[in-house]
Amino acid sequence: MQLNVTNAQAIEVSEATFGSEYNETLVHQAVVAYMAGGRQGSKQQKTRSDVSGGGKRPWRQKGTGRARAGTTRGPIWRGGGVTFAARPQNHDQKLNKKMYRAALRSILSELVRLDRLVVVEDFAVDAPKTKVLLDKLNGMGLNDVLIVSDAIDENLYLAARNLPHVDVRDVQGSDPVSLIAYDKVLVTVSAVKKFEELLG
């Protein structure tokens, strides 16, 4: 299949990478797994056995007229432990490499179908200036965009750093969430070839 390139000749690309059928279930699974992997999972509270103190009973068992109490660290006491205390959890979800690559192929193909993938010969800025990049993107009619190249250009990265709706990634750094989060995905021809190498 052919992929249109802005202000240049169309390029021949792999049908498997940029023309596969959209698998919503697989893409959802990949997105959920990616988001789950970013969770810290370090939340923790103390149960009655974790709280310091409480070894000596506050008063004797019988004769005081008060309810019996064996510790001052039970859940009904101020300063006591939590009844069902939270424990650290690992939220990671397993996703096979084959499935992950298939999900990326599915996303790229859908971006092409929805006309959200913009291919350019090359994309760079001469200086790390936000205004220079902004003018360049405005000239192309892009404001909410992910820029993907085969290698991150430092000037481009620094220029985009302060723009809330612009992100710069290399091919290896592209993930399911970032690819679907932006209105448009701007990719260079070399990045397209790299995608084909990695996902083909």
From TrEMBL:
One GO cellular component, as annotated: ribosome
Species of the source: Aquipseudomonas ullengensis
SUPFAM superfamilies attached to this UniProt entry: Ribosomal protein L4
Keyword rRNA-binding set for record: yes
Stored HAMAP family: Ribosomal_uL4_B
GO terms under biological process: translation
Task of the protein: Forms part of the polypeptide exit tunnel. One of the primary rRNA binding proteins, this protein initially binds near the 5'-end of the 23S rRNA. It is important during the early stages of 50S assembly. It makes multiple contacts with different domains of the 23S rRNA in the assembled 50S subunit and ribosome.
Taxonomic superkingdom: Bacteria
Chain spans, region Disordered: 38-78
Protein name listed in UniProt: Large ribosomal subunit protein uL4
Oligomeric form and interacting partners: Part of the 50S ribosomal subunit.
One Pfam family per UniProt: Ribosomal_L4
Family designation: Belongs to the universal ribosomal protein uL4 family.
Molecular function terms from GO: rRNA binding; structural constituent of ribosome
GN (gene name): rplD
Assigned keywords, A-Z: Ribonucleoprotein, Ribosomal protein, RNA-binding, rRNA-binding
